[in-house]
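**User:** Everyone, produce a chain:

**Assistant:**
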Amino acid sequence: MITIDALKAYGANVQEGLGRCFNNKDFYLKLINMGLADANFDKLKAAMEAGDAKAAFEAAHALKGVTGNLSLTPIYNPVCELTERLRGKSEIGDTGVLLDTIMTELEKVRALNA
């Protein structure tokens, strides 16, 4: 099960995330698990692979909110960059590296549950 200490070691800004959850650790960890299961990760990957910039932007923008509210900084930062690079674009351009980073970081934090 994922822990506060594991999230800190991973690089999440746990104090900020906990603050948003009224310092309720159980609630924060529940939200972390919900966030890690967000369907927008799969939508983002599929849209990027299909070259659908609009759908990729929508998924990235949603994930920006989720990862930002949870203070999952290692995922949040590349999601923010991807969101801005896709904003108003009709092509995904050279953003594949950002997708790779996001998915790698997602797997790292999901592995904390093992």
